[in-house]
Amino acid sequence: MDLLDEQKLIEQQWQAWEEYLRLRNEYVRSIKEAVRDEIKYHVKMHPVEKVMLDEIISFYEKNKILDQDDTEVLRSIQKKTN
Fold it and tell me: How far apart are CA 78 and CA 82, in angstroms?
């Protein structure tokens, strides 16, 4: 394998890695959006108890499912239900 072939192989592997990261990020975003939508649906359909919402927020924070902005939205919902 000459240097040019090796460089092409490295470029192909790099492109495959970038594609993997792009797909993974899209998947993570879609999970976050699904969780967000589900929470919005349940909040509209019936009131969520404070303790239950607090447990959900703690779970999401502990497992780093939602980012800080999303967590703040949940905290604001919790304050409005008090």
Answer: 7
Read off the pTM: 0.42
82: three-class secondary structure by DSSP: coil
For residues 11-31, one letter each, b for 16 or more C-beta atoms within 10 angstroms of the residue's C-beta and e for the rest, the string is eeeeeeeeeeeeeeeeeeeee
Which residues 6+ apart lie within 8 Å of 78 measured at CB? 50, 53, 54, 57
State residue 12's pLDDT score: 93
What is the tens place of the pLDDT at every residue in 8-36? 999 999 999 999 999 998 988 888 888 88
Q: Is 64 left (phi over 0), alpha (psi -120 to 50) or beta?
A: left
